[in-house]
Structure prediction request, 508 residues.
Amino acid sequence: VFVPHTSACGKCALCALCAMERPADHVARLKPIWEDVCGRLGVELGRRQKWWAVLEGRYCEPQRHYHTLEHLSELFDHLDKHRAAISDVDSVSLAIFFHDVVYDPRAGSPKNEQDSGALFDSFGQEALPAGEPLGLAKGELIAKVRGWIVQTATHKVSGDAEEDCKLFMDFDMAILGSNWERYELYSQQIRREYIHVPEVVFCKARAFFLSSCSLGSSMVYASDTFRQSHEVQAKENMAREATLLSDRFATFAMPARLFADVALSPTLKRHRKTTGCGLAALAALGFTAFHPVAAIGTCCAAIGTCCSASALLGLRLALGARYEKHPYKSRRPNSETVVLAGSYNPPHLGHLEMLRHLSKVHKRVVAVIGVNPNKKYDVNPYQRQELLRAMIQELGLANVEVTVWTSIIFVYARSIGATTMYRGIRSWKEDGRAEKYLEFQNLVYQIIFGHWPIPTAYLQGAPALSNVSSTLLRRRLASGEGISDLVPEGCAAAVQWAYAPARVTASL
Prediction:
């Protein structure tokens, strides 16, 4: 029976486990690796220190017992052993550092992996230098590493995936194929992370998933190297733990076993249809699936939300969003933060005119490049980010920032305390229907999430620039025409390089 404790007592069997959680030795090992990787990538010293503090703080959180700095050290042991087989050591190293940087056992998978990927994305946007050509290599690195991090939710890797990806996934899964003594400590550490889960539920869920992985035909590891060195031991370990958990489950009284069966039934049915053996799923299967009190609270909140949603939505749509016509009226500067979202594909003088106006009125303005993470773009969003940053710098707009965001815009706006979400509009005739639909979506989603909606406001583009659009700019670039009247002169060459027809065609 597992008995949690927080300090080594010198008497119990878990003292070795407690000693393994002391972080000082792992900091001494990992920080120089971080410094070396950041140095090779050109990350400034101040940003290295800031983000190391983020990593160290996250991996030392009190809810962690396996997903700690020690876990990172073990992954770097594997990287050192297989370094000769890795073509991009820096990308694999960044994936190791950030893959579990967000870890909340109650949130579960894939949210933890998605949030970890998003935090790495923030690091990349802030700390990695723009490079030359602007944003190209940086964008490719961010997209690749973020993809790997999110992929650890399942550890499913296609046969034609690059070897670096396969090895990174196998490093993360290597614990399953370790000797039994280390594996047993790992399983105890996982139990401590899920101490909020009733023992009977934990035994039922984890035994089910371990059995399905150990007895199934699918391989645990992706690379030939780990299949030869770890596969057999991993399946033996999982089968052994599954037997121990099943025996433990059998000792519970009938009502407790029935409770676990009913609580986990929908979750187990879903997982019978999957073939993956992801470590995140193995750790968390069903552990957040059934919380009666939380479910009742959620239902009550939903009823209350539904009662007020229609009235609020109707009022907002009836009153309409603020619409600022050009020429914009002068307003007293305020201390607000606002966002101006768009694709900026590519950015042009029409965008910059709106950002210039907003920068005069608001203390902080963020141009948000909205991205679908599942879509491949001719010019990656991080290239567009660096192009827009260069244009903003050329115009001297010191309080304007640029960020790439891969989720719903209002989530980002809320995270930075924005008071208004602006949208650029040429005319209601051209853009009105699509923009009002987006406004409606934003209102509905925010209400569903239980938030008082951040309002949308519209900016009319300058009539003198009414013919300027990203579509026109791309057309000019495709035909080799000049663009100096559409973008700041100092950035024209960089835009032409990024959107050169040969490069765009090659990316399709």
Observations:
- The radius of gyration is 26 Å.
- Confidence is low (pLDDT under 50) at residues 1-15, 272-276, 284-300.
